[in-house]
Each structure stands twice: as C-alpha cells, then as structure tokens.
Amino acid sequence: MTNAAVLTLTTKSGAQSRIDWSQVADALHAAETLEEIERLRVRTQDGWTCLGERFQVRGTPSHHLVLEGDCSLIDGLGYAMQQGTIIIESSCGHGVGENMRGGSIHVKGNAMDDVGACMRGGSIRIDGRVGANAGGRSIGATHGMSGGLLWVAGDCGDRTAERLRRGTIVIGGAAGNFGGWSMTAGTVIVFGKIGDGWCERMMRGTVISSKLPRPSPRFSPPQRCNLTYLKLLWRFLTELHIATMVDFDCSQIHRCVGDRTRNGLGEWLQLSNTQP
C-alpha cells in the first residue's frame, strides 16, 4: 500500500452509540471527494448521522481504507467486501468481514462476535482475540464460511467454524466450546487449548490441533498415519507468517474420523512438534 491512494478515517471522541458500517460501505467506495464522504449517511443506535460527525476524513477516496482511533463501536466493517484493503488500527465491533468475498482486512486489536461469518473469499487477520461464531453462520444462513482465510492470533470464543463449508481458519490461541459443529468441508487449525463439544455432527473437513477428542462413539479410535500433504499446508502458512509450529514429524500424526453417529467422514488430526 506504499504507493497506493489511501483513505484514512479517524474516530472522534465522545461518541456513545454503535455504528452499522454495512449500510455505508458501497456508498463510501463510490464517493469521489472527501466532502462527499463526510456527507454520507450512516446508521447508529440513535438514528442516522453524517460520517463527518463521527470521523475526521483525510487522504484520497480509495478502496484502501485505514481506520484510526477507538473503533470498538463500529460493527460490520468489511461487510460483503469484494476488493481492496481495510486496516483497523485498534479493536473493533461485531461482524468484521461478514459475507466477505475478496480483499483483505487486518485488525490490530480484538474483534467481537461473527468475524468472517458466511465469508466466501479474501483474508482476515486479527492480531488479538475474537468473540463467538468466528467463520460461522450469519442469521438466517444455512451454512457458515465457504472460502478464504481467517487468521486469529489470539483466542476464539464458542461456536467457531459452525457449519464450515470451505476455507481455512487458523487460531493461534485457545478455541472455545462447540466449534466445528456440522462441518461439511474446510480446515480449522488450533494451536492452543481446544474446548468441549467440538465437531459434533461433522460430515467432512479437517480439524488440526495438539489434542484429540475424548474417547466417544462419535469418533474412531486414534490411529497413527503419515499425511505428507500437511507439509504443503505448513509451507503455505509459513509464507504468510502464520505457522508457529516450524516443523513436525509427519509420521507422528494421529487421526480420528467422525462424527460416526452421522456417518461422517471428517478427520481430527493431532500433530507432534519435533522440537523439544
């Protein structure tokens, strides 16, 4: 973004009501001047207001957006995004990248619930933690995330990857309970502690963690296997500066298959780091 035009919005102090960013995204991209952007109408909890009432606007109208200041009251950033970049210099609200189709989002703090819900493409990076339903379903949707990459450096809340259809979710910290519910495809990697109730009703897809599920009728007994394709996955993650397990022994992978109560063929893999 060094040579690209950048639009920068800085939040003004004193605001108390939440903003629904999903209502202004298309108009923001269509605006040709900073004055047009300042006059754009945005919905808040208290009604409608002009963007210029809540933000200081500078730079050049562009698909490359930087948000500065306290963004914790802004919901729906990157909603249905198709191109460009959004960099959020602080924590933000709910629904980051919901229904996203392309482009990239980088949150340099925490985010609330519904990050990447029904995401179809593009990439989201969260430097902190996120709330519930990351990569899951939007209200009324039949499936969750179906494409793209969601990378959370910290912890995730409950119901991560609910009804995951495709795409990759990487969690650097711990993951809450009931993740991967009714997965049909896609990959979830959890580097930290994983909660209870994961992968119930799982049909297909892959969950990778340092811990296997507790013995139950839902999953087959763990078996050692050699899955060399994981080396390619780790190379991809390393190129994106995501992988934190630099090396592992492909012959030390243990694999369970389930959810067998649903005739599912999903796989849960446990990796063993080769480093002491």
Write the layout of secondary structure elements.
Elements: E1 7-11, E2 19-20, H1 25-30, H2 34-39, E3 41-44, E4 47-50, H3 51-54, E5 55-59, E6 64-68, E7 74-75, E8 85-88, E9 104-107, E10 123-126, E11 146-152, E12 166-171, E13 187-190, E14 206-209, E15 223-225, H4 229-239, E16 253-258, E17 266-270
Parallel strand pairs: 1-6, 2-7, 6-8, 8-9, 9-10, 10-11, 11-12, 12-13, 13-14, 14-17
Antiparallel strand pairs: 1-5, 2-3, 3-4, 15-16, 16-17
Describe the structure.
This protein has helices at residues 25-30, 34-39, 51-54, 229-239; strands at residues 7-11, 19-20, 41-44, 47-50, 55-59, 64-68, 74-75, 85-88, 104-107, 123-126, 146-152, 166-171, 187-190, 206-209, 223-225, 253-258, 266-270. The chain is elongated and about 65 Å long. The longest helix is centred in the C-terminal third of the chain and has 11 residues, at 229-239. 10% of the residues lie in helices and 27% in strands. 40% of the residues are buried. A hairpin with a 7-residue loop joins β16 and β17 (266-270). The strands form two sheets. A 13-stranded mixed β-sheet has the order 5-1-6-8-9-10-11-12-13-14-17-16-15. Strands 4-3-2-7 form a four-stranded mixed β-sheet. With 276 residues, the protein is mainly beta.
